[in-house]
Task: inverse folding
């Protein structure tokens, strides 16, 4: 389908998905389980669709985290609670966060967006995409705002899996990808290293290696088009129209995402004349 901008679509469903991990409600939910710090909760909730994943498996599929950072959380997270409990808790955190950030979740617009997003998500390719496949195998929530979140999560992980494949094909390693991205987007190297657990020595060893991230991003976008081709031009345009105010509202109110390793700034990139919270 010509004219589809996969990145613009990502900008609309990524903020909705990110409430999974980066909100006070999410942190409170995993703290209540007994998680030691926010990262244990993050790795437990994100890996839970895979079952009691080993640190090696989680490191492989998440890609850009240093192995030592993952192993501080896994497998200890599975001693705190089972994967099924993490799945329940993450949905509870998402529900609380969306109700706070959006104000009203039982709207016709959210129900319509959920229907469109589900069609797109079910068309997302899962071959070679473990996180997308694992999340798609989970039960669909009944409430529209949670069904929309579930669809956004599948779409997000499908794009992420495709991005990992593009990085591997281009020969760009995990720490190298972060270093290149930080340089291209003028992000603080110290922040990026800390956010993903790499040492100064590891960072400096790869920071000058060549790598064409622009080609990787183009490959990622191309590999993310199938859901929108299935939804069609009219449905995709309607999804964009419905998700834009939701993404802006969440991004403007979610303090935990003010600074992030993805350089994600929907408030700036999706600026709409006359929009306000």
Result:
């Amino acid at each position: 389908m010509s004219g589809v901008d996969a990145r613009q679509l990502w900008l609309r469903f990524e903020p909705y998905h990110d409430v999974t991990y980066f909100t006070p409600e999410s942190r409170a939910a995993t703290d209540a389980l007994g998680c030691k710090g926010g990262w244990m909760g993050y790795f437990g909730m994100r890996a839970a669709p895979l079952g009691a994943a080993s640190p090696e498996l989680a490191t492989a599929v998440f890609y850009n985290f240093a192995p030592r950072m993952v192993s501080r959380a896994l497998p200890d997270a599975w001693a705190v609670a089972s994967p099924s409990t993490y799945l329940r808790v993450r949905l509870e955190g998402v529900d609380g966060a969306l109700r706070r950030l959006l104000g009203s979740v039982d709207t016709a617009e959210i129900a319509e967006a959920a229907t469109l997003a589900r069609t797109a998500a079910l068309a997302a390719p899962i071959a070679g995409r473990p996180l997308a496949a694992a999340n798609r195998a989970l039960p669909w929530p009944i409430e529209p705002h949670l069904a929309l979140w579930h669809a956004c999560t599948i779409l997000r992980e499908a794009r992420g899996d495709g991005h990992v494949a593009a990085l591997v094909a281009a020969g760009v390693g995990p720490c190298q990808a972060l270093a290149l991205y930080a340089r291209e987007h003028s992000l603080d190297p110290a922040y990026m290293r800390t956010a993903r657990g790499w040492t100064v020595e590891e960072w400096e060893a790869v920071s000058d290696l060549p790598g064409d991230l622009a080609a990787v991003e183009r490959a990622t976008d191309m590999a993310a088009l199938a859901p929108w081709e299935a939804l069609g031009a009219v449905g995709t345009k309607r999804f964009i129209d419905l998700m834009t105010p939701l993404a802006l509202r969440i991004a403007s109110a979610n303090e935990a995402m003010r600074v992030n390793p993805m350089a994600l700034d929907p408030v700036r990139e999706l600026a709409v004349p006359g929009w306000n919270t």
